[in-house]
Amino acid sequence: MDAAEPLNLPWIQHLRRALRDYVVLDLETTELDPQHDRIIQIVALRFRNGQAVATLERYVNPAPREIPHTIRLKLGLENRPDLLAVIESASALAEAADELRVFLGDDPIVAHNGRFDLSFLRAGLGELKNPTIDTMELALLLCPELRRHTLESLRDALGVTQRDIASVWESAGGATTIDAEFLHNASTDVALLAVIYLRLLERWGGFVPTGTCHHSRATS
Prior knowledge:
- By secondary structure, the chain is α/β, with parallel strands linked by helices.
- Helices cover 38% and strands 15% of the residues.
- It has one domain (11-204): 2-Layer Sandwich (Nucleotidyltransferase, domain 5), CATH 3.30.420.
- A hairpin with a 2-residue loop joins strand 2 and strand 3 (51-59).
């Protein structure tokens, strides 16, 4: 593995290492500061030869940090007391650390706004030496005409359907039922991100960084 990488370097340099074998990762956290806030959900999809083959899904107890009301609303926890109970009874991140490290292995990590996710992982697990691809950085390069590069914006621009999202999740053997209409849950977001990354790889391979980023491929 490489030495742990500074967060301020462009991660596009790792793209060729993450074309077939990689792990797509998404986190949900109590808020935005990795030094004071905590992870509450980790979901990862492992890809081999460009196919989703395995999942890791874990809720994490953020104690002593409480989940703010705004985050409860964002994640739909106000209407899901059963899910809130699962989080409150879950183990701490330290107890899931070995399992997560084994799942990640030496694979490149693919994440949206990846510096955010990696900063929380480093705060909780220590240094990670996995090369990382930030799909927001990649989308900014390949889809410069978009005003926003959120998962929702990229989903619409790249023509990602609910069936696309469900198909990736099912292929990986995801245990939970995902709702493609309900984003801001790590299970749904990671499946959506996996499809977006595949679409961006298609676009990068076809050298289509200009013009439109809509799903219809450019023709010469």
